């Protein structure tokens, strides 16, 4: 068996008839994955390091803050008409940054919510094919979990499509998104600085003009009867938003401040 | 006269003098250096095992893949469809990982030559891939930043005594460590490098006599080093193994844990 392999492999490489392979370029490991493991991870560990004295000081300040809230230090007497102020629950202590727990990108989910599927479920086919073309992976159908009478939705109706990417496919998709698609988008400067759910997930939403910017869609765009907007959810192992943003910014994701700059608001 | 407050005041004054920063012994005890690295430019090459694994998984993917929805992408009976079917015949004949699982090819339209494989379309030229070995590799020019594209290169400089070390220098009064590191790098190796320093804290240290040098990591993004004749006679961009051969044994023990093996 091995004899036959060597004879043919010497003459042909898989994927030669197309001039490309469906696996990552060079076959071995996605470029972004190599970049993360060989270069970025070390930098993240260094940037997130908090020296023990600073960490101790932070804890002391946090305790003092909570104590001050509890005892209402320096505050005016509480207004009986106003509801009692909620004390935020103490933030769970984020594990100290070390080589074994630097944040990484765990999973990327691309999904399309297809309202047109309510009238005719064959409209979902475009959504499924779009995701398959763009991610290189077979898409799953999302079925409704609850009824919603205003939209004539019943439980179990196919209502969307999603793809969950992990490993090399995930890195390649992220690479494409950040290097090719986002720069081509009009009026997109970056992810907002107040984005993130606090548990390491970041979501980007795109409208239907963005799907045509993917390199794979250039050749087959006309074949799709319907184009959809989609959402990309990036799940990281970061414990809080700043760490997640640091990781994404290391993967070349642009960020912009949430608020408009002061000069704009003063322009006449 | 000798009240308790007056005595305290005298003690305080003595204490203040004791922590004065003009003490000469403090000046040279802390030094700041830079671990400047050029990151890998090309991806890591796959070893024989990785290549074999990849070929196997490519084959698995091929035989277990969903049927290509030909009727979705091509109109039945169109020329595009027949062109695609021709290509599929050729493609199906490529997978010889397991001779028993070779799919039955409908008809071999033409003899397979490697030159014919990549279709040359009228509008686009085939992409020419650069070589992974550059001329700096061929000549062994250790000053070039284009040598060993798949490895991390570190900047080492030859000091006044002829010893090879990472760029470093003194920390002045009223100066922070990362500011001193940047300044020392600029003085020793010229200001024509675009450098991004990773944070403000050190990643390692080395001792020489009384002095401790703390190194802050940086990446060179653009430009090239230029040795300042007074401080450094030469510079080199070298990989971890080459650093081990170049620096002294004692210095290697101090810095080796900062250097990447890739």
UniProtKB/TrEMBL annotation, chain A:
Gene Ontology biological process terms from the UniProt entry: translation
Residue ranges constituting the Large ribosomal subunit protein uL5 N-terminal domain according to the UniProt record: 100-154
InterPro entries assigned to the protein according to its UniProt record, in alphabetical order: Ribosomal_uL5, Ribosomal_uL5_C, Ribosomal_uL5_dom_sf, Ribosomal_uL5_N
Signal peptide: none
Coiled-coil region: none
Keywords tagged on the record: Ribonucleoprotein, Ribosomal protein
Superkingdom of the source species: Eukaryota
Residue ranges annotated for the Large ribosomal subunit protein uL5 C-terminal domain, each copy included: 158-255
GO annotations of cellular component type: ribonucleoprotein complex; ribosome
Recorded GO MF terms: structural constituent of ribosome
Pfam families recorded: Ribosomal_L5, Ribosomal_L5_C
Disordered: annotated span: 71-96
Ranges of compositional bias, category Basic residues: 81-91
UniProt family annotation: Belongs to the universal ribosomal protein uL5 family.
Protein known as: Large ribosomal subunit protein uL5m
Organism: Coemansia aciculifera
Name of encoding gene: mrpl7
From TrEMBL, chain B:
Keyword Electron transport: no
A GO MF label: structural constituent of ribosome
Subcellular location: Mitochondrion
Record-annotated Large ribosomal subunit protein mL46 N-terminal domain positions: 29-137
A GO cellular component annotation in the UniProt record: mitochondrial large ribosomal subunit
Region (Disordered) location: 122-144
Pfam families according to UniProt: MRP-L46
Main location: mitochondrion
Keywords per UniProt: Mitochondrion, Ribonucleoprotein, Ribosomal protein, Transit peptide
Family stated for the protein in its record: Belongs to the mitochondrion-specific ribosomal protein mL46 family.
Protein name in UniProt: Large ribosomal subunit protein mL46
Organism for this UniProt entry: Coemansia aciculifera
């Amino acid at each position: 068996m091995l004899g036959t392999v060597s004879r043919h492999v010497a003459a042909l490489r898989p994927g030669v008839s197309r001039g490309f392979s469906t696996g990552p370029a060079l076959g071995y490991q996605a470029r972004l994955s190599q970049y993360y493991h060989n270069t970025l991870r070390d930098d993240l560990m260094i940037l997130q390091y908090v020296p023990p004295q600073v960490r101790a000081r932070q804890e002391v300040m946090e305790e003092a803050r909570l104590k001050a809230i509890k005892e209402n230090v320096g505050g005016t007497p509480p207004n009986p008409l106003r509801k009692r102020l909620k004390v935020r629950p103490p933030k769970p202590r984020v594990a100290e940054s070390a080589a074994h727990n630097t944040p990484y990108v765990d999973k990327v989910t691309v999904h399309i919510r297809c309202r047109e599927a309510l009238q005719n479920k064959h409209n979902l086919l475009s959504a499924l094919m779009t995701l398959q073309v763009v991610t290189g992976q077979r898409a799953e159908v999302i079925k409704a979990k609850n009824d919603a009478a205003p939209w004539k939705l019943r439980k179990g109706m196919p209502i969307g499509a999603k793809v969950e990417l992990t490993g090399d496919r995930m890195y390649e998709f992220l690479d494409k998104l950040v290097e090719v698609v986002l720069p081509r988008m009009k009026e997109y400067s970056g992810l907002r600085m107040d984005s993130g759910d606090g548990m390491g997930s970041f979501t980007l939403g795109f409208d239907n003009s963005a799907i045509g910017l993917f390199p794979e869609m250039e050749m087959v765009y006309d074949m799709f009867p319907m184009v959809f907007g989609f959402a990309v959810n990036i799940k990281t192992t970061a414990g809080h938003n700043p760490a997640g943003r640091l990781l994404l910014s290391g993967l070349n994701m642009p960020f912009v401040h949430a608020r408009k700059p002061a000069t704009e608001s003063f322009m006449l | 006269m000798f009240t308790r407050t007056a005595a305290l005041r005298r003690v305080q004054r003595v204490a203040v003098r004791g922590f004065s920063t003009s003490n000469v012994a403090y000046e040279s005890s802390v030094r700041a250096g830079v671990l400047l690295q050029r990151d890998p430019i090309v991806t890591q090459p796959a070893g024989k095992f990785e290549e074999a694994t990849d070929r196997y998984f490519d084959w698995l993917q091929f035989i277990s893949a969903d049927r290509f929805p030909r009727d979705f992408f091509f109109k039945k009976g169109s020329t595009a469809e027949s062109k695609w079917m021709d290509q599929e015949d050729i493609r199906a004949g490529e997978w010889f990982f397991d001779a028993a699982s070779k799919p039955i090819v409908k008809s071999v339209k033409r003899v397979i030559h490697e030159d014919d494989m990549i279709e040359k379309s009228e509008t686009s030229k085939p992409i020419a891939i650069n070589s992974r070995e550059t001329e700096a590799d061929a000549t062994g020019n250790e000053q070039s930043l284009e040598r060993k594209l798949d490895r991390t290169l570190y900047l080492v400089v030859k000091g006044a005594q002829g010893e090879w070390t990472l760029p470093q220098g003194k920390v002045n009064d009223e100066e922070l460590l990362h500011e001193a590191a940047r300044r020392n790098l600029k003085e020793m190796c010229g200001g024509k490098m675009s450098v991004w320093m990773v944070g403000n804290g050190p990643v390692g240290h080395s001792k020489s006599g009384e002095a401790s040098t703390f190194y802050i990591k940086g990446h060179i993004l653009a430009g090239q080093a230029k040795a300042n004749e007074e401080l450094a006679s030469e510079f080199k961009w070298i990989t971890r193994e080459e650093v081990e051969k170049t620096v002294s044994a004692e210095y290697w023990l101090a810095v080796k844990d900062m250097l990447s093996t890739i």
